[in-house]
């Protein structure tokens, strides 16, 4: 087998907290790797999150327009959010979809999990596929510091937005392409 060390963990020899914030912590770690190297690394500790490809019976999906600090502009992306403590991924998907769009998930399937940038953060994002009824929309409930505009677009249009570089959120790109390649019969 080619990948003999796949999944082997390093041994954290020490960890010092540099910063504690509301969404992430920054720590400095000394680690003994599976290759028997001792390395010092900075790590952004970040809780789990979900990214939601919500699909109507006629294959339209929800795309959000939302301001994102990291790129300092409005972006186009799938609904997403942090998983609350003691909340399952499916519960987070249902809650986030309801909060950001007002829609209720009828069926939830976790497609796969991705990391954001595993060289410096432990954030793990569950990519979810949801069926929902677009005629049944309730109120949205945003966090105090967010505002999201929702759009229902044909899936093929979203795929073209990825191709054109207008959807560039890694989680959204991964969800859309994963669905296109592996889940089209959902």
TrEMBL record:
Keyword Hydrolase set for record: yes
Ranges of residues in domain Nudix hydrolase: 45-175
Alphabetical keyword list: Hydrolase
Single GO biological process annotation from the record: ribose phosphate metabolic process
Cofactor(s) listed in the protein's UniProt record: Mg(2+)
InterPro entries, alphabetized: NUDIX_hydrolase-like_dom_sf (IPR015797), NUDIX_hydrolase_CS (IPR020084), NUDIX_hydrolase_dom (IPR000086)
Protein name in UniProt: Phosphohydrolase
Organism: Xylocopilactobacillus apicola
Classification lineage: Bacteria, Bacillati, Bacillota, Bacilli, Lactobacillales
């Amino acid at each position: 087998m080619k990948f003999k060390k796949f999944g082997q963990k390093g041994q954290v020899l020490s960890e010092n907290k540099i910063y504690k914030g509301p969404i992430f912590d920054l720590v400095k770690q000394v680690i003994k790797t599976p290759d028997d190297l001792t390395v010092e690394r900075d790590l952004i500790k970040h809780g789990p999150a979900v990214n939601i490809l919500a699909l109507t019976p006629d294959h339209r999906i929800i795309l959000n327009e939302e301001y994102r600090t990291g790129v300092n502009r409005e972006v186009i992306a799938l609904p997403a959010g942090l998983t609350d403590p003691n909340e399952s991924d499916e519960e987070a998907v249902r809650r986030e979809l309801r909060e950001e769009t007002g829609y209720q998930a009828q069926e939830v399937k976790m497609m796969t999990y991705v990391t954001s940038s595993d060289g410096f953060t432990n954030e793990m994002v569950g990519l979810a596929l949801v069926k929902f009824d677009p005629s049944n929309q309730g109120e949205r409930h945003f966090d105090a510091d967010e505002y999201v505009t929702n759009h229902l677009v044909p899936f093929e249009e979203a795929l073209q937005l990825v191709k054109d570089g207008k959807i560039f959120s890694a989680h959204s790109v991964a969800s859309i392409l994963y669905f296109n390649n592996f889940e089209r019969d959902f």
